[in-house]
Amino acid sequence: MVQAVIRRRPRREAAIAQSRGLMSDLLARIAKERDDAAFRELFETYAGRIRSFMLRMGADPGVADELTQETLFAVWRKADQYSADKGAAATWIFTIARNLRIDKLRRETPWQELPDEVAAAIPSEEVPVDEAIASAELQERVRRVLAELSREQREVVTLAYIDGLSHGQIAERLSLPLGTVKSRMRLAYQKVRAALEQIT
Amino acid sequence: MTVSPSKHPDDATLMSYAAGGLSEPLAAVVAVHVVLCQRCRAEMRALDALGGLLLADCPVGPLRQSTVPARPEEGGARLVRPEPIGEALLPDPFLRRFGLDAKPLAWRRLAPGIRQIRLRLSGGVPGDLRLLNIAPGRAMPVHGHGGTELTLVLSGSFHDATGRYGRGDIQDVDDEVEHQPIVEEDGCICLVASERRARFKGLVSRLLQPLTGM
């Protein structure tokens, strides 16, 4: 089971990579023209993945369908709030799916959606290097980090992000001490941070 | 006024927050910290990007016919749009979520020099989330024992052996940590979450202990 979780899927990754540039164009067409064909295309790329994502956290198939629809409807409604310089389309879609999943499966309200615009609104004396990194560059760096994670690091990261497990649940699933799970996660995080800190 | 907290959540805590795996009380505290902390906001962008890539890497599951919409209906928006908070104590979405937006905060006396507001978590969610308002010179309650405990300073400050904590700073401890935090002259309002239910009895007894020299 865990093996399946961490197995790389190079072909699918490549397919998404090719359409990556397209995704933000599709979102722009949805926002500006309420373009049905653009939505359809985005739907075809993401619906099956989002459904897998929802199923992994233990949603039953009916709930997974419902959450998949809700996520993609939110994408349709909020396409005008997406801007490519804030992050990749995939990142934005992930945050919507994640928040809806938290809301539904844990009966929590999605006020976690606090970041980003607040950042823009709070006056700051200096913009740190990280915030100045263009989103395409950020995406590329994070992609490299993901490829460089050790098998063990990728395993805990995937169980956290995709299966939605807490530190304690991951420890239980892998029969590892809690401290080991946290330290693997910290190591993965340090690679993300290092990628942010590299100055091009 | 620029807030630049110097004390952040543990890396593993922040990653778990980005992944959506933190329990509600802990996520509540981290969400407010992220609003107040430029560094963690920047890092959240990268952590969210990691989620986007992992989602894109998910296998394509089969869809039922009913999943595929003809054209989405409008309306029913549920995600909260964030708003700037400047020097406000807490973000509006947070106040609304916990029913604190309509009236002035109703502090209840817990012990001499200490007032609190307990926040109601979603049904069935374990843990404890409360606002504490502590007078200068008092000891901060330490009510851990069992799981992660997060303390976020909203105004004023406290200090302990690990340093000084001011607005936006977060103390992320697990049960192994022992500390004796002391509230500074400006008092301290903080948001405290624990993963499991706080041991209220222990908390009260700690609070009732005045510090030497008071």
Describe the structure.
The complex is a heterodimer of chains A (200) and B (214). Chain A has 200 residues and is mainly alpha-helical. Chain A contains eleven helices and no strands. Chain A has two domains: 10-123, Orthogonal Bundle (Rna Polymerase Sigma Factor, Chain: A); 128-200, Orthogonal Bundle (Arc Repressor Mutant, subunit A). Chain A is flat. The model of chain A is unreliable at 1-11 and 108-127 (pLDDT under 50). Helix content of chain A is 74%, strand content 0%. Chain B has a single domain (11-58, 103-207), classed as Jelly Rolls. Chain B is α+β, with helices and mostly antiparallel strands and 214 residues long. In chain B, strands 1, 2, 3, 4, 5, 6 and 7 form a seven-stranded antiparallel beta sheet that branches. In chain B, helix 1 crosses helix 3 (38-56) and helix 2 (24-36) packs across helix 3 (38-56). Mean pLDDT of chain B is 79; it is low at 75-82, 200-205 and 208-214. The longest helix of chain B is centred in the first third of the chain and has 19 residues, at 38-56. Chains A and B meet through helix 2, helix 3, helix 4, helix 5 and helix 6 of A and helix 1, helix 2, helix 3 and helix 4 of B.
